[in-house]
Amino acid sequence: MLLSLKMSYKATMGEDYKADCPPGNPTAGNNSDQDTTKASEDFVDPWTVRTSSAKGIDYDKLIVQFGSSKIEKDLVNRIERATGQRAHRFLRRGIFFSHRDMNQVLDAYENKKPFYLYTGRGPSSEAMHLGHLVPFIFTKWLQDVFNVPLVIQMSDDEKYLWKDLTLEQAYSYTMENAKDIIACGFDINKTFIFSDLEYMGQSPGFYKNVVKIQKHVTFNQVKGIFGFTDSDCIGKISFPAVQAAPSFSNSFPMIFRDRTDIQCLIPCAIDQDPYFRMTRDVAPRIGHPKPALLHSTFFPALQGAQTKMSASDPNSSIFLTDSAKQIKNKVNKHAFSGGRDTVEEHRQFGGNCDVDVSFMYLTFFLEDDDRLEQIRKDYTSGAMLTGELKKTLIDVLQPLVAEHQARRKEVTEETVKEFMTPRQLSFHFQ
Description:
By secondary structure, the protein is an alpha/beta fold. The strands form 2 sheets. Strands 3-4-9-8-5-6-7 form a 7-stranded mixed sheet, with helices on both faces. The chain has a two-stranded antiparallel sheet with strand order 1-2.
C-alpha cells in the first residue's frame, strides 16, 4: 500500500516522495502510468474527498483500502431481529455501507451488556446543510431502537486550528449547530452534547484519556495516518487524541462513573475513519474496548458527486436555513442531471440514475422504497423527465426543511444549556 501511495504521489506531483519534505509544485502532463493515475482519482481523508467519477467514490475499493467490512444483508437482518424494528432506510439502501465490529456490539446487546453511541460535528459555519443531517438522523434512529445513551462532540477546537476562525467564532458556531442537532429530536434524558473548548476543562477523566492516547501515538504515526507535515501547528498534531477520547466510557464520569468496559459505537462518514483506526490501535494498550463503527457514504454536492459541498458556495447544497423558494431554485438550476440533451433523446434512451443528483438525494430522504424503485425505473426508461424528477425532489425537501426549521425555532438557549450540562443520563445498564 505504501509503495502504491508513493507511486501515486510521483504521478500526481511529478517528483519522488521525500519524508519530512513538503511537496513542491506539481509537474503538469506527467501521465506515464495510467494505472497509477487512476489509483489516485479517489482520495479520502478527514478533510478532503476527491473523485473524478460522476458516480462518486468507489466505496467497494475504499472498504478494501481502509480494511473495514461491508454491511451485508445478513447484518441488516440481524439488526432488525435484535431491535424488533425495520432497518432504517440508510441501512436498507447501503447509505451506511461499511462497519467495524458491529457484530460484536449486537452480541453484547443480545446478552444485555451495555454500549453507548458517540458521534460529532465540526462547527465550521453557522448554517448546516442537508449532508450534515445524515449522521444525526441515523444516530437518532439508533438511539431510539437500542435505547442507549449518546454523546455528541462539537469539535470547535479542531475548527479553530484548521480554519481562519477566532475561538469565539468557533464556539458560537457550536451553539448554533447544537440547535440544529437538537432539532433532529434527540432525547434530552439520554443525550449529552459537549464543546471541546468547554468540556476539556471540566472533566479530568476526559483529559486523562487524551494524554494517555497522546503517549501511545508517535509523531511518525500521525504523519502517516493524517498526512501532517513539519509546517503544521502542534495543535493539529495533537488533535486526533481529542477526537479519540470520547470513544472511552470513563471520559464521561458523570454518565458512566469510572467504568472502562463499556463499548462505544460510532456512526460517522467514512472520511472520519482514520481517527478511529488510530483509536482502535491504542484502545487495548490503555485498557479499553475498541470502538465499533458504522460508516456512511458521502452526501453529494448539487453540482455532482465529484464536486465538494462548500459553506462558501451557497449553491453547492440545500442549507437548513433555505426557504421553499430557494430550495426550488437550487434544485432546478444547479442539481446535476443524468438526463439526455433533448426530450426526444431522453424518451428514447432514458436517464442515468447513477449520476443524477436529484435521484441521489431521493435515496437519502424519500422513505417509500417502492416509490423510489418506481422513480428509478421510470427515469431509466425515459418515462419520467428530468423536470419531473426534480419536482419530486422539491416536493420531498421543502416540507422536510420547513419542519426542521419549525423544530429549531422551539429550541431555546435554555434547552441548549440543558443538553450541554454534564449530568447523569437515563439508561438501564447491568
